[in-house]
Write a structure and sequence with these properties.
about 525 residues, alpha/beta, Chitobiase, domain 2, 3 domains, eight-stranded parallel barrel, globular, binds acetamide
């Protein structure tokens, strides 16, 4: 592939410059990766195919308009308006959005078009073509136009109007599910911080935000039928801070904000363990009828719902019913991890009933991979979070589930957990799965990662951010960036384009963009940052 060869050539140039500097000890700076990669080679995640045409490009200027073609409802128009919002700040241009209906659709500028015949582009794929008259984005569905718009953002300079070089991109994702998770239970975060994350995710083509809404330390979502969950169970967090919770309107607002960026929100209520905040809120949920104190430490595995008590199932029916009503997407995540205080038979019996409740409310179950040791319901998705050291039998249970048709989401903790420290000098974070430097986080293949789980069984990848040690936006971003970009690429790009030497250069070229957006990323030493 031409693009790959060029990237390798660029790597050799850069590597030679770096070793030359080291050998001679002089102060000459090695060339920036952006000096040796064309804009089409810098794209992250790497597209299926991208090439500069060698011909003239399109110069953005004060007259540039965004022309949106016809589509379902006003959806193409809305994609165009959001793209205009995203481009106006960096470019400083007015970028009006106009209807490119018959007649005027061929004018200069940015053109967004649906093509009903372009079935090969699927739900999220797109084509982008740049010529002197403009940039044309073509997709089979509006989500593809949005994803292509994110590619266009990367082809423009970080600041100023600039020119998009002539060229073509054709692009579709490798995996349908490309996720990030955030734990707002260990530390409470406001919806605005999570919206900011949605923007950061969407620009790297991540399409799912999984929100870990409840845990021992806090219950973060209002439930009308059990109001003390949020009002009392939400008023705590790790370290003794005030905690907090989201109202239903705040949650709906987040879901709508994400949907506009073609990001689905998957809410998680973790059960039957990780429930101290619920047990503290309602004595009747405890087998002994006594509510424990709220909890602000970081131990796991000590709490359990009362599996033999019918009131427990009324509780989960109410909670999951209200959550399903707030959720336009297909999935409800019911946790199921680290239920160390629930005997195995009770766990299996409980998960049978919890899965039936999800189905009753018209949703599909996602659960952490411990569900594979019980009885996953038809269609249930298992989310693997083990490490290279996880016992073979535990991995085999996931493979058995996959063979029975359960899709698998891969979140291997020793690669994809964003809360693992990069190295011993990282201040926030944990290290129970080992240190996870940027290179390690990127260097695995979701299609072959788990023995006997073929690529066809892999729904996708997800990067969780647990927040036992993370209480500020700065620490959140330090841990997520840049590793999140690598997970985004593993989820989107063809396996043939995944190679660390080329990726580290692409990643390096993202630093001015991250900086311009105010993202406090970790300047990993193995990346030749700009
Ligand atoms: C987990 O990290 N307990 C899913």
């Amino acid at each position: 592939m031409r693009a790959t060869r060029r990237t390798l050539a660029a790597l050799l140039v850069l590597a030679a410059a770096v070793s030359c500097t080291a050998a001679h000890g002089d102060d000459a700076e090695p060339p920036h990766a952006s000096a040796v990669l064309t804009p089409y080679e810098r794209l992250l995640p790497a597209p299926v195919s991208a090439r500069a045409s060698g011909g003239a490009g399109y110069a953005f200027g004060p007259g540039t308009v965004i022309r949106t073609g016809p589509g379902p409802g006003e959806e193409v128009r809305r994609v165009g308006e959001l793209l205009a919002e995203q481009l106006r700040g960096p470019s400083g241009l007015p970028l009006p959005v106009v209807d490119g209906e018959e007649g005027s659709g061929d004018g200069d500028g940015i053109r967004l078009r649906l093509d009903a015949r372009a079935r090969e582009l699927g739900a999220e794929g797109y084509r982008l073509r740049t010529t002197p008259s403009g940039v044309t984005l073509t997709a089979h569905a509006p989500a593809g136009l949005f994803r292509g718009g994110q590619t266009l953002r990367q082809l423009l300079p970080v600041r100023g109007a600039g020119e998009v070089p002539g060229g073509d991109v054709t692009d579709t994702p490798r995996f349908a599910y490309r996720g990030a998770m955030v734990d707002i239970a260990r530390h409470h975060f406001p919806v605005d911080q999570v919206k900011r994350y949605v923007d950061q995710l969407a620009q790297y083509k991540i399409n799912t935000l999984h929100v870990h809404l409840t845990d021992d330390q806090g219950w973060r979502i209002a439930v009308d039928s059990w109001p003390r969950l949020a009002a009392y169970g939400g008023a705590s967090e790790v370290g003794g801070g005030p905690g907090g919770h989201w109202t239903k309107d705040e949650y709906r607002d987040l879901v709508a904000y994400a949907a506009r960026r073609y990001v689905d929100v998957v809410p998680e209520i973790d059960m039957p363990g990780h429930v101290n905040a619920a047990l503290a809120s309602y004595a009747e949920l405890n087998c002994d009828g006594k509510a424990p104190e709220r909890y602000t430490g970081i131990k796991v595995g000590f709490s359990s719902l009362c599996v033999g008590e019918e009131r427990t199932y009324e509780f989960i029916d109410d909670v999951l019913g209200e959550l399903a009503a707030l959720t336009p997407g297909r999935y409800l995540h019911i946790g199921g991890d680290e239920a160390h205080s629930t005997p195995a038979a009770d766990y299996a019996a409980f998960m049978d009933r919890a899965q039936a409740v999800v189905a009753k409310h018209g949703k599909t179950v996602v659960a952490w991979h411990q569900l594979a040791n019980a009885r996953p319901a038809p269609g249930a998705v298992v989310q693997y979070w083990g490490t290279d050291k996880t016992a073979a039998a535990e991995k085999a249970a996931v493979a058995t589930a996959a063979r029975s048709g359960h899709p698998v989401i891969l979140s291997p903790a020793d690669r994809a957990y964003l809360d693992m420290k990069y190295d011993k000098a990282t201040k926030p974070g944990l290290a129970w799965a080992g240190y996870v430097p940027v290179q390690r986080s990127y260097s695995w293949n979701p299609g072959t990662h788990l023995p006997d789980v073929p690529e066809s069984a892999v729904l996708g990848v997800e990067a969780p951010l647990w927040t036992e040690t993370i209480a500020t936006r700065a620490d959140w971003e330090l841990m997520a960036f840049p590793r999140l970009l690598g997970i985004a690429e593993l989820g989107w790009s063809p396996s043939a384009s995944l190679a660390w030497p080329a990726y580290r250069l692409r990643l390096a070229t993202q630093s001015p963009r991250l900086t311009a957006q105010g993202t406090a990323y970790y300047r990993a030493p193995e990346v030749p940052w700009e």
